[in-house]
Amino acid sequence: MKKIETSYLSVRQPIGDFYCCVMNASDLYDISFTDVRTMENESEDGVGTYLGIQRSLNKSRVKKIKEYVRSVDATFPNSIIIAVPEKFVSLGQRLLTIEYDEDKSGKIAKILDGQHRLAGFDGTNGKYTNREGDQENFELLVTIFVEADLHTQAQVFTMVNQSQTKVNKSLVYDLESLALARSPYRTAHQIAVLLNGKSDSPFHKRIKRLGVKTQGIEGELLTQAAFVENLIKLISKKASFDRDILLGRKKKFLGLKEKNLPDCQHSDFRRLVFRNSFIEEDDAAIAANVFNFFSAINQRWPLAWSRDNKDSVLNKTIGLIASFRLLRDIFNKLVDSGEANFGDVVAQSVYLKLLSDVDLDDEFFEKIDAVSKSSGFIYKKMNQYI
């Protein structure tokens, strides 16, 4: 017989009584299962019985959470909600106890909310490494409904999920300004803010800081998320890993205090042309290159880059994506020819000289549909002249 014991708080609400407690992630993972809503015994006329209340797991979301669980500041401050049959639960004055036979593992607690968070612990021992390098149990807040009927379970699931709004990515990146340590996210955010604010910048008042247009400003055609994500592609292969190392250093985590950033070879810099600058903490060089390159874009195609040109795609997200890809190729070309080294600041005039060889006029960018796949087409057309 296996046993989980935990202190609890009893909560009484219109839906009924439930219990809040703390469990080790490994224990909760061991007893939990997901009841995905599916159809059973479907007949030829399409009539069948639907069972379960949950959605299927999103594999890409689980993958991201698995990475997050291993980060140095991972946290799940909100409860995972489960429903447990009464026969497995006993309540004392101070302790809630769940007892079950070994063969019932994975069949005790039905997850009503938090299935992706809990799936993130798959393949782990439910522990994390603290600052001293010791292993500790990853504890989770848990809300337990005991002997809740299916309708109550469905009500809880619906209530928790129906009003959830996905957080705007631009807001997420904007909050990087509050980060304790450097990271590719913070660097890219700071550059976005800098270039959006400078009056002589090619991005002056073009970036929607929180993903929505600023009242009283016209011509904000780019989201902060689009700018940040595409700049990061030239800085880091795995920005979250860099962030962990730098934050671990800042917090003096054992094992991270002396750890070097990865991807620091010349071969890595071909893909990550601003990697060397980031490693050397020279964010100013990254900002200067972005400023100079897009100033050259503006000088080469002034009509297409103009934010007043509603027909052009160069001044929109798909043009931004194509341009950042082209920037990588141009920087590599300059390195190959000996005109620059990784970590240098390339002058606007040098960028403009290469862009002048691109035999496309302003009208080219006005004849392209503003759909996501067009960014690849634009990049290939521009790149063939580099």
Fill in the keyword field for this structure.
eight-stranded mixed β-sheet, alpha+beta, two-stranded antiparallel sheet, 15 helices, single chain, 14 strands, 386 residues, elongated
Describe the structure.
The chain is an alpha+beta fold. It is built from 15 helices and 14 strands. The strands form four sheets. It has an eight-stranded mixed β-sheet with strand order 3-9-6-12-2-1-8-7. A hairpin with a 2-residue loop joins β1 and β2. α6 packs across α11 (283-300) and α7 (224-232) runs parallel beside α13. The longest helix is centred in the C-terminal third of the chain and has 20 residues, at 317-336. It is elongated. Mean pLDDT is 91; it is low at 41-51.
Number of strands: 14
Residue runs with pLDDT of under 50 for 5 or more positions? 41-51
Discrete helix count: 15
Given the C-alpha coordinates, what overall shape results? elongated
Report the β-strand fraction as a percent range.
Answer: 15-25%
Mean pLDDT: 91
> How is the biggest beta sheet arranged?
8 strands, mixed
N-end to C-end Cα span: 70 Å
Helix-strand makeup class: alpha+beta
CA radius of gyration:
27 Å
Give the strand order, joined by hyphens, for the main sheet: 3-9-6-12-2-1-8-7
> Percent range for helical residues?
25-40%
Order of helices and strands: EEHEEEHEEEEHEEEHHHEEHHHHHHHHH
